[in-house]
Amino acid sequence: MSDDLEILRQDVLSELAGAADMRAWDAVRVGTLGKSGRLTALLKALGKMEPEERKVRGVALNRLRDDLTRAIESRGQALEAAALEARLVAERVDVTLPPPAQVQGAIHPISRAMEEMTAIFGAMGFSVAEGPDIETDWHNFSALNTPAHHPARTDHDTFYLPPVPGLDVARVLRTQTSGVQIRTMLSQKPPFRVICPGRTYRADHDATHSPMFHQCEGLVVGKGVTLGHLKGCLIEFLRVFFDKPDLPVRFRSSYFPFTEPSMEVDIGWSRRTGEIGGGEDWLEVLGSGMVHARVLANCGLDPREWQGFAFGMGIERLAMLKNGIPDLRSFYESDIRWLRHYGSDPLAPALLHEGV
Ligand code: DAH
């Protein structure tokens, strides 16, 4: 091979070796094999040569082109692999990293209680349904058999939203999660079992009432659903939630517009010591009943074909009882010391088989 070709080979090989990234590599490639690359220029010059000379030179040039093409390709692959390797190292997420020695933060007892309720009812085949905090007056009251001027409406100290011009529906901050019953019956085909944990609002503020609080609604609709199912379901829930297999539970007849019959549910406790399950007193913990035929009909379900039971409970109330939290207002004060005391481990989710 003539000297100039050997020099070109050495030049290109050393430039390739020195190319540290794909951009430098591409500059060598274009400078060699590109339209005005050095090798391309030599190949073009062949045309002007005498046939004899061209033959010899042509063979050498072709060999050089093959060699350099291969060298450029393999350097390109090596650089690409190195770039990928560097990215993998730089972007590595070590999922095996241990948590910090001291876990930061804690799960708020309201979130925890919701997780526990979801775990318990989840094991009974319930799924979680959701609805909006800003609810129509119809979903919050009328469809639940509480029409305008019904006395039960005044119990709720409702926050009404200002009317929207052109919008012919009254809107409220939902006073109860019961509207989700309506939304579920309208959007799903029975049979179903749902719970709806969520925020609710009433214009009420003192040591035992907050303008914003949480409820967990429950609804079961199916064929042949009876009061016996309601009782079994709620007794089981309360005993697991409070971790007391023999917790006394009492059903007391009551009134809600959307259920018939309606029952309030009490658990045994001691007024003197505050102990759940012990003592001679009763404490009301939730409301329940068989879904009123009119509510089923409002949602297009034939009450002769479908039956259901429903219940609603205050999440703060249950969390206070379970954790011995004395003051409702403390839930919302964002006091980090309080949260450290009553909060739970964020790395230990509510699992039924561990006892919630
Ligand atoms: N919505 C009721 C309240 O806020 C609670 C309730 C009672 C819900 C009975 C129900 C029920 O679904 O059946 O006081």
From TrEMBL:
SUPFAM superfamilies: Class II aaRS and biotin synthetases, tRNA-binding arm. Its cofactor is Mg(2+). Mg(2+) binds at E260. Binds 2 magnesium ions per tetramer. GO terms for molecular function: phenylalanine-tRNA ligase activity. Residues 110-349 form the Aminoacyl-transfer RNA synthetases class-II family profile domain. The keyword Transferase does not apply. It is found in: Cytoplasm. Its EC number is 6.1.1.20. The keyword Metal-binding applies. Keywords: Aminoacyl-tRNA synthetase, ATP-binding, Cytoplasm, Ligase, Magnesium, Metal-binding, Nucleotide-binding, Protein biosynthesis. InterPro entries: aa-tRNA-synth_II (IPR006195), aa-tRNA-synth_II/BPL/LPL (IPR045864), Phe-tRNA-synth_IIc_asu (IPR004529), Phe-tRNA_ligase_II_N (IPR004188), Phe_tRNA_ligase_alpha1_bac (IPR022911), Phenylalanyl-tRNA_Synthase (IPR002319), tRNA-bd_arm (IPR010978). Its main location: cytoplasm. It catalyses: tRNA(Phe) + L-phenylalanine + ATP = L-phenylalanyl-tRNA(Phe) + AMP + diphosphate + H(+). Tetramer of two alpha and two beta subunits. PANTHER family: PHENYLALANINE--TRNA LIGASE, MITOCHONDRIAL, PHENYLALANYL-TRNA SYNTHETASE. Belongs to the class-II aminoacyl-tRNA synthetase family. Phe-tRNA synthetase alpha subunit type 1 subfamily. This is Phenylalanine--tRNA ligase alpha subunit.
